[in-house]
Protein 1
Amino acid sequence: MLPAVQLDLSVSPAELTAQLIDIESVSGSERPLADSIQTALGACDHLTVIRDGNALIARTELGRPQRVVLAGHIDTVPIAGNVPSRIDRGLLYGCGAADMKSGVAVQLKLAMEVTAPAMDVTYVWYDCEEIESERNGLLRLSRNSPDSLAADFAILLEPTGGVVEGGCQGTLRAEIRTAGERAHSARAWMGRNAIHEAGEILGILREYQAREPDVDGLRFHEGLNAVGIRGGVAGNVIPDECVVTVNYRFAPDRSAQQAAEHVREVFSRWQVTLTDAAGGARPGLGSPAAASFAAAMGGTPRAKLGWTDVARFDALGVPAVNFGPGDPALAHTRGEHVRIAAVDECARQMRAWLLG
Amino acid sequence: MLPAVQLDLSVSPAELTAQLIDIESVSGSERPLADSIQTALGACDHLTVIRDGNALIARTELGRPQRVVLAGHIDTVPIAGNVPSRIDRGLLYGCGAADMKSGVAVQLKLAMEVTAPAMDVTYVWYDCEEIESERNGLLRLSRNSPDSLAADFAILLEPTGGVVEGGCQGTLRAEIRTAGERAHSARAWMGRNAIHEAGEILGILREYQAREPDVDGLRFHEGLNAVGIRGGVAGNVIPDECVVTVNYRFAPDRSAQQAAEHVREVFSRWQVTLTDAAGGARPGLGSPAAASFAAAMGGTPRAKLGWTDVARFDALGVPAVNFGPGDPALAHTRGEHVRIAAVDECARQMRAWLLG
């Protein structure tokens, strides 16, 4: 095994981001970066460190009445000619610049330097966020070490453009199936056309009134949509089956089970097969730690509509928000970059908040 | 080249059917059977014979004021353990027993024995009916020898259960395409769902009132049906396209072009792409030859709803009907068979009619 690349932690958060980009860490190949982070953490007497595969947990144990988690994934999507990093007119370019090595750099700077935070802090770095859920490092940690993740509040440093995005909506997919009866299409009235019947399902979807509930003070916005449809036997056959795949995005005041019940109720006249579901996360902005965080970061918090790993904290009973430098729209692009000033500002704001 | 198998034409039509079944003639492999038929026709001085590939035309040239075509295909679908033929309790079993070697046997018996018909007769045997249209032997003859097919009336000896089925409906397929705008399904309102819009197309199909026009005294029954639908990009994407494939079965008072115009009009709000179309055939039961044929065969003529090769005669300006022994529902089945008495009765009726 090669010795870990030494990180220079004396530099600015943005400069540290550049060092992190230059240690490639595509999902499944995070070991070199995990080793470098572990080596750096080894120098910190104020932290208790746990390693689990290529994930790391580092905790202060100061007996504070409140504990907050700062979490980030260390993997990236595949390199696209955008490593090593480069700087151009105040922007730092490179794979993971926005999603989310800038967030990881902020975590690392805070972990090193904030030795006496006003609340206890659990730093979490994990692997395999960009690939199939079953390999997700945070999922693994939540199974192997749920107690180490316990907290009053969690912040996931995914790119949000520096705005607090609270919680996230859940997502559920189901297949709605119509049944008909085959016949030769020259004598259509001998059969029953399952595709025609699917028109009623599409009619329900067109008329569907999506909820926009307030949850913990944030306005969510649900959606129920067809994302796929298939049917047909042959060009001269009245089809006996049509399958509409729907995706229900539901606010975090509903559990995945309640969401499934809702979908079954909406399409009660047909066979409904659930294919996958993941619950959302409440933003929990009513809790003292979360409220003080939102106030300290400024701006108007908004609901996170896409599903993110904050839902895994919610599943552990920890309300969570997304907050990090970088534009989420740049994630996974060849030209991915982050404003240098935004990274340093994020670190400054969060340091001030942690010091209380 | 092997010498052709000698057919024994002294036997009954049903016994001749058995001989024909025993000479395998799956589409594309009709040469041995075509050779045997040509050899048999060579003994008939009253017939002028044309061979084109594995198709044959044999004509009387008696200068009669009327001419009728008796046509049949000599190919079968692939053998399914049902050759050689066998007889069981009055039924003749074997590949092509119904579709349509019994009809071919009737043609052959009439061609041999009716040397002085009341009207001139053109017998047509052709290849490759059971496969893609472009290889169809009747299509080839209609291009190579249209004059040899000219007539006042045509009878296609496809199985109809001994009932005159007049003309046939046309068939047209088209793709109706909705266009939307992609968006992440967590923010569906940023896009436009093309699958939802397809619900309006399905609504039109559900409400569609199919025509049932009388054409030349027969009641046809149209149909406009979805036979396929597809749409969807990914489980988390609002789809920007949905394609509904429709099949329009239209009565022979409409041309294929008029049918296409009708479909474009019904779906005028969307992009319509014609994928294939074949016009139908008028039954022409008003013509003297056709009327006398229908009267002689007895029963109540009905409209043919499925598309058949009679449409190729219609395209040549020859009204045509389907009439043959055998149950069309048995065509292409492993247990295909024909009633022996039905074959002989069909030949008897047609002989009497030809003799006038």
Protein 2
Amino acid sequence: MSEGHDDQAEVAADIAAVEQANTAFYEAMERGDLDELSGLWLPGEDLTISCVHPGWPVLSGRGEVLRSYALIMANTEYIQFFLTDVGVSMTGDTALVTCTENILSGGPAEDGGELGPLVGQLVVATNVFRRTGDGWKLWSHHGSPVLADSDDDDDEDTPS
Amino acid sequence: MSEGHDDQAEVAADIAAVEQANTAFYEAMERGDLDELSGLWLPGEDLTISCVHPGWPVLSGRGEVLRSYALIMANTEYIQFFLTDVGVSMTGDTALVTCTENILSGGPAEDGGELGPLVGQLVVATNVFRRTGDGWKLWSHHGSPVLADSDDDDDEDTPS
């Protein structure tokens, strides 16, 4: 807050780019587009990516992480994310995004062509991005189910 | 892997320092030492810290995060962490640690001086650290319950 006023425009542009990368991540999931999703994660193996789906153990490396998304997409007929409480914390070439994923999803029906029952789910995520020559790429995604409210924290629920 | 062989010793020292900071974080929890714990998180408000306890929503900023630890410590008579699958991924001044927290904990007994029943819990965590002049400090902690095994991923469960 107390320094760096001269490059506020640059910081604002960076934050907007990070928020866009974060949104693109969820939109690729909604479309079930594994190619698009693969391109949003850090490439190569110089920096090991990691991913935790709600209730899952840690997955590490592009092979393991992308296989998990292929599996999830194959078992998800419909999924939509309503993101709330999006907060970006950034320094240098690393950005940390926290958000609440209000999820509405449905699997394939068990007996034929119709959609299975829709399920609502409340998940919070910490997404870490790295700046690359090709834009901000995911380094880590950690999602977890919200099992209880903490209403007494409402006075400070606006991360910046 | 393919470059930077000349500073391998430096990288190894960095990784050791990050692992030590990660261990110190859990040891402070085990001792219920809130002052020690407070000093392990990034100071000030230039970079917003965030924390997700298993099943909780996102907490942001030192006030909210440290209050949650005070609350947890007040309600935890005994807690021990056995860390497994510790993986460090690092670039520049940011390090990302993933680990499995095998937790054994007990609350105060409801009727008097004895310890409450001990409970085992399996949690996975993504901890993000930043390098500071005073060592590596926590920027983000996200812990979540492991609700199901994924035995078919055993061939790749050694993050580096």
